[in-house]
Amino acid sequence: MSAPTAARIRVWGGFALAALVLLVLAPAVLSDFRLGQLGRYLCYALVAVGIGLAWGRGGMLTLGQGVFFGIGAYVMAMHLQIADARLVGDAVPSFMAIAGVRELPAYWVPFASPVVTVLAVLLLPALVAAVLGLGVFKRRVKGAYFAILSQALAAAFAILLVGQQTTGGSNGLNRFRTFFGYNLNDPVNTRMLFCIAAGVLIAAVALVRQLGRSRYGELLTAVRDQEERVRFLGYDPANVKVVAYVVAAFLAGLAGALFVPIVGIVSPNDVGVVPSLSFLVGVAIGGRTTLLGPVLGAVGVAWAQTALSEQLPSLWTYAQGLLFIVVIGFLPAGLAGLGIPVPRRRGSRGRGCRIPGDAPGDGAGDGAGAAVFAERRS
């Protein structure tokens, strides 16, 4: 058996094993409560997959993924609130009726349609990311400046939501009863939601793997290592970065839309600075340069947060901060750097996607990606 054939068998075997564990074993052995918790962790992992592409391969330290997660979540939550209100014959959701609002705000009306809602979940985060990315990357904003800007955007978005009573203010939107006509109180439907989240996560990992192995993935790595050399080769690094940023936003918005019916609530606390940093912590701990590292790191951190918060609620924040500092300071490659067998992204000729020791995205890399891409281009 040739090496490429054996590699393909290992890859497809890994995807089959993941599908077996998530779609068959987990629903069979976990209680409804624990399955719901795991579904929430998978939503976080879906965000982490996008961050792994943008940060791990592209060198863009995205501290504002909570914005795109929140867009997808609030779009879905508004649709579910409207559907629940119409189910009982009300013109507006109950929290609006209590506040004296008698008709839907204009920006709520389109989301009464399931088709518009699904399209908005799929397209709106990506569109916002495209506009922001073009505005930022065309001006060659990168490194710490991009990180601070994205974090400020997440903070502004959370503050905006707190001040909007038509989106529930600081309480957010909750108490959803149906999901596109399916009763959320039925355990069969909650398991269906978990399977949807698991299937979407597996598909997202496959998508990012394919992007990483493509010519675009090599170009993104080259931009990360030596942006100026890529520009001299005739490519616009801004366009390359925007694509990765849009894909990461798309996955975050999709994760937010799945998070709402699985968890049953979304509020500004789920989309601000702290959640955005939590997404990043999981990616860093798992290993941002690997394919499965962000997934395993996000699930592990979310599980640890739940477990430790139940026992030591006041200490989790400090433990999380200490863990992030230790990983960034001493394990820049995450747990993958300890030799844990987490599959690395591979180029089409088997080269690993390695990030230099210098800060990602600042153009201080060793130029390996750019050199490889230039060699193949010639």
TrEMBL record:
InterPro entries in the cross-refs: ABC_transp_permease, ABC_transptr_urea_perm_UrtC, LivM-like
Residues passing through the membrane, by range: 12-31, 38-56, 62-80, 115-137, 144-163, 188-208, 242-266, 318-342
Coiled-coil segments on the chain, per record: none
Superkingdom of this protein's organism: Bacteria
Membrane topology designation: Multi-pass membrane protein
Start and end residues of each stretch annotated as Disordered: 346-378
Subcellular location: Cell membrane
Keywords: Cell membrane, Membrane, Transmembrane, Transmembrane helix
Keyword Lipoprotein: no
One Pfam family here: BPD_transp_2
Chief location bin: membrane
The protein, known as: Urea ABC transporter permease subunit UrtC
UniProt source species: Kineococcus glutinatus
Lineage, opening ranks: Bacteria, Bacillati, Actinomycetota, Actinomycetes, Kineosporiales
